[in-house]
Design brief:
The protein is an alpha/beta fold. The chain folds into 3 domains: 52 residues, lambda repressor-like DNA-binding domains (434 Repressor (Amino-terminal Domain), Orthogonal Bundle), CATH 1.10.260; 145 residues, 3-Layer(aba) Sandwich (Rossmann fold), CATH 3.40.50.2300; 155 residues, 3-Layer(aba) Sandwich (Rossmann fold). The protein is 36% helix and 12% strand. The strands form 3 sheets. Strands 2-1-3-4-5-10 form a 6-stranded parallel beta sheet, with helices on one face. A 3-stranded parallel beta sheet has the order 6-7-8. It has a two-stranded antiparallel sheet with strand order 9-11. Helix 4 links the parallel strand 1 and strand 2. Helix 6 runs parallel beside helix 7. The chain is globular and about 60 Å long. The protein starts with 6 loop residues before the first helix and ends with a helix. The relative contact order is 0.13. Keywords: DNA-binding, Repressor, Transcription, Transcription regulation. This is LacI family transcriptional regulator. One of its GO terms (molecular function) is DNA-binding transcription factor activity.
């Protein structure tokens, strides 16, 4: 059996105090975000977390009243954690539907649910009674500091549409790479030879995987992979992660330089609908001069003008599957962690050119 990695070893490796390492690894405040990241990174490399498994007793917690914190119901309780960052809200047409699926599955199983949607000024552990929590489902981005706190509390948790590179956990995603490969392959089959990916490829793991799927399909078809880099790193607010002014400037420049692609594969529907709107302002007809695809199939996609071709994400199914995964983890606490990928369906609408027009594009 390998020797246990100690906090002192991590501190010695970084030239820091054991006190600073302890604060960082417990998820407590008192160290900078940069220092915390370094500490967690070195701890992961040395195998610190590999020797700190969640205790099996976590699945046997009793429901007790919480004094000054989140209430515990008479039923077992699952916390659904949706920190209010990147517009991850209950009202979102994307995140909200995932939460609907979680709530429906928990209700059918007669398990209570507490929705936590705010950032925490104080320690998360001060808000809850760990003995009253069956498990936690993190929906969307959850900070490493908060995940460290949850792990140290010994509460089973899974993440939906997010993966922390330093803190291992069960994760649930759409099969982002394969879905975008299918979209890109369809566009190439329609005759498109100049395609552009649009979206911040560093925004989230799901966006990075969609970018990887796009690139791999271009490579398989032997097509030029040169991309306008400005469209791969746009930043802004919300799931679109894109400033409209930046996007308008990039597309306007491409039009002036005659480098506009005939197809744009967007990282999600919000980005795709912005692209369609700006192309219209620039006098570029969609799909006659440029096809546009999205991802997620949010409610607005079918009502866009033109209606958006996109990958359908069964958001309620994601929520239900996440619940199943959490309850399985609670029952089998020591089994290997899982990364589950759900398939999506490519829905063809009016924003893409159909095969009968491929001769005109060749």
């Amino acid at each position: 059996m390998a020797n246990k990695v100690t906090m002192q070893q991590i501190a010695d490796q970084l030239g820091l105090s054991k006190f600073a390492v302890s604060k960082a690894l417990s998820g407590k405040s008192g160290v900078s975000a940069e220092t915390r990241e370094k500490i967690v990174s070195v701890a992961t490399q040395l195998g610190y977390f590999a020797n700190k498994q969640i205790k099996a007793s976590a699945s046997k917690r009793s429901e007790e009243a919480v004094s000054g914190g989140l209430p515990a119901s008479g039923k077992e309780t699952v916390i659904v954690l949706v920190p209010n960052v990147r517009n991850q809200t209950r009202e979102s047409s994307y995140w909200g539907r995932i939460i609907d699926g979680i709530a429906a599955e928990l209700q059918e199983r007669e398990v209570g649910m507490v929705l936590v949607t705010e950032q925490f000024r104080d320690s998360f552990s001060n808000l809850i009674n760990p003995n009253g929590v069956k498990g936690i489902i993190g929906v969307g981005f959850v900070s490493s500091q908060l995940l460290l706190e949850i792990r140290n509390l010994g509460i089973p948790f899974i993440l939906v549409d997010h993966e922390d590179p330093l803190i291992p956990s069960d994760t649930l995603f759409m099969n982002n790479m394969e879905c975008v490969r299918r979209v890109t392959n369809y566009l190439i089959g329609c005759g498109h030879r100049k395609l552009q990916f649009v979206g911040n490829i560093r925004y989230a793991r799901s966006f990075a995987d969609r970018w990887s799927g796009f690139r791999s399909m271009l490579e398989e078809h032997g097509l030029e992979q040169e991309q306008d880099r400005s469209l791969l790193g746009l930043t802004g607010e919300g799931r679109a992660e894109m400033l409209p002014d930046e996007l308008e400037g990039a597309l306007g420049r491409m039009k002036e330089q005659h480098t506009l692609p005939t197809a744009m594969v967007c990282a999600n529907d919000l980005i795709a609908m912005r692209v369609i709107g700006i192309l219209g302002q620039l006098g570029i007809a969609v799909p006659e001069q440029c096809s546009v695809t999205g991802f997620d199939n949010i409610e607005e996609a079918a009502h866009a003008v033109p209606a958006l071709s996109t990958v359908h994400v069964d958001k309620e199914a994601l929520g239900r599957r996440a619940t199943e995964m959490l309850l399985r983890r609670v029952a089998h606490i020591s089994e290997p962690q899982e990364k589950v990928l759900l398939s999506g369906e490519f829905i063809l609408r009016d924003s893409t050119v159909y095969p009968l027009l491929q001769t005109a594009l060749s």
